Amino acid sequence: MRFLQLPRTIVCGVAAALASQLALSQALELEDGQATLILTNGSIYTVDGQAEAMAIGAKGVILAVGASDLVSQFKGEGTEVRDLQGDTVLPGFHEMHVHPMMAGLRENACKFAQGSSLQQVLDKVAQCVEAAEPGEWITGGQWDAPTLGGIPHRELLDRVAPNNPVILTDTSGHSDWVNTMALEQAGISRDTPDPPGGVIERDSNGDPTGVTRENAQQLIADLVPPPNLAQRKAAVRWSLDTMLAGGITSFVSATTGEAEAEAFAALADDGDLKQRVRLCLGGRREDPKDVESLIQRRQLYARERLSPDCVKLYLDGVPTDSHTGAMLEPYADIVEGRDDEASRKGILMYSDEDVKKVVTDFDVQGLTVKFHAAGDAAVRRGLDAIAAAREANGFSGLLHNVGHCTFVSEEDLPRARAMGATYEVSPYLWAPSPINDSIIAAVGPERIERVWPVRDMIDAGALVVPGSDWSVVPAVNPWIGVETLVTRETLGGGESFGKGQAITVDEALAMYTVNAARQMGHDDRVGRIAPGMIADLVVVNQDPHKVPAQKLHETVVKATIINGEIVYEAGP
Question: Which N-terminal residues, if any, form the signal peptide (predicted)?
């Protein structure tokens, strides 16, 4: 089949007539020239330019993009013509870092708003206990140490939950707060050593406070009864629907164990998976032996739009009050009760030798590696590992991804382009959030101005993609990310940090479309609007180029289209 790129404007006189005749003759030569859907009278942002109409064929492929009168040549008896009434069409958005099952399960857990006060959290836990049976686990989140008045203690939970084990996860997902019953069921006491890559917080007497971090979280989390397949499917389905309503047509499930992979595959078999999904297998909370087995059997979960071709490796934690993000220079504050190298500069989960070997092996197997690397020392370790894989294997074509990149050393910035690696940043996280207060206190005012150095990454020639880390953030709204990338301000305008790292609207949109499509390895099919590409699209109520940057987060998704099918449509 041949496709037609129509002129964006009509040329005057004879040239216009010739252009129209040529367009019509080429259209008639198309094997499947009749469109099933035409979008007209709007603004079509193609990534490469603007148009006012487009035609989509029966197989979900874009037939034509251009002026309305020329696109209308593809109208047939069964064609649906939609008047956009000035709305804007963009390539479908990509989300490079989400946790769908976790997000869905949290909706039915003991959930409280981010930034809740200590009393609000305790009141909510008391309500959850009242609705539960004695001895039943109470799970939920998301708490923030700054709004609780400091790192919380197990005795606070004991007051409202004396007969139920409680485990509450913080906003970052890298710390849990539990009560005494949970500690006792896990067999954790003052004599329990910190596991490798984890911390059991202790008071001045050496007794556990009830806060566990990183790999220590699993000591208790493993005791919580897992959800069954129906519950897992319902949780993932809820997240799929939520993302469709946000115009997200492709995404990466950033930490996927076998239970979640099974749920995704089951939804695909049921016909409920519309988006294009990459599963990054593994994570902090998975047994390494289970992850290895899952990787070997990954093709069991492969489906037409489901690709289990990625592995997640955690290199560090988070640069907050926990001090688990691995930094090149010491943190600016101190952790009460801790005075060791880990508390001063964070935790590296892998030795340099081990991570180089692991990444080199995965590269040979055709698996893209996605790192969790928040601190600049972790980013460097990830880049070193990718460099080792390139030296051993040559360029495999896989774009290994360094995720989060909260802090990156200036000397490391150019390395991604040189070795064919990519950076993922989390633009949602510099919108107002208690977690930012924690980061600022931990690293100090000077380093915070270089947090998420997106401008410098792009100027260094790196491919940069966005990842919200939802449900660490409260909403999976790409337009929050677009706005904060462009303004480096709080939503709607206001003081923030890292103002020198702002980028343009087009650069931000490219991150969510063509850049991310390239990261996922399907930029030959989606990520831009052009004849021959697949029609993965989002229709929104305003042109991002024509509104104040501080209004971008107010953009409303009117419809989401995948493979030419309207899979979401907003109500009247």
Answer: 1-19
Domain of residue 189 covers 117-221
How far from chain centre, in Å, is Cα 42?
29
- Radius of gyration of the chain from Cα atoms? 25
For residue 274, give the CATH number of its domain: 3.20.20.140
Strand order in the sheet with 276-281: 93-98, 248-256, 276-281, 306-314, 368-373, 401-404, 422-425, 463-466
Same domain, 190 and 243: no
Q: CA 513, 517, 518: angle at the middle one, nearest 5?
A: 120
* Amino acid identity, position 130: E
Residue 180 lies in a domain: yes
The Cα–Cα gap between 147 and 126 comes to 19
pLDDT of residue 339: 67
| Bond from prior residue into 34 cis (ω within 30 degrees of 0) | no
Per the structure block, which two tokens stand in for 303?
């489906």
Q: Are residues 50 and 124 in the same domain?
A: no
Give the sign of the dihedral formed by CA 451, CA 456, CA 460, CA 464: positive
Residues 6+ apart with CB under 8 A from 551: 483, 492, 542
Q: How many C-beta neighbours within 10 Å does residue 153 have? A: 17
Question: Is the CB of residue 176 less than 8 Å from the CB of residue 220?
Answer: yes
Of residues 221, 228, 229, the one with CA closest to residue 186: 221
- Across the range 15-36, mean pLDDT stands at 49
**Which residues, listed in sequence order, are joined to residue 178 by a DSSP beta bridge?**
167
Strand order in the sheet with 537-540: 50-51, 43-45, 88-91, 537-540, 557-562, 565-569
d(C-alpha 519, C-alpha 423), whole Å: 10
pLDDT above 90 (res 211): yes
Angle CA 494–500–503, to nearest 5: 85
Per residue in 165-174, pLDDT (tens digit) is 999 999 888 8
Residue listed under structure tokens 């500069």 = 345
Q: Contact 517/523 with Cβ under 8 angstroms?
A: yes
Asked if residue 112 is part of any domain, the answer here is no
Count Cβ neighbours within 10 Å for each residue of 173-206 and write b for 16 or more, e otherwise.
Answer: bbbbbbbbbbbeebebeeeeebeebbbbbbeeee
The total number of structural domains in the chain stands at: 3
| Token digits of residue 75 | 């109208």
Report percent pLDDT > 70 for the chain.
91
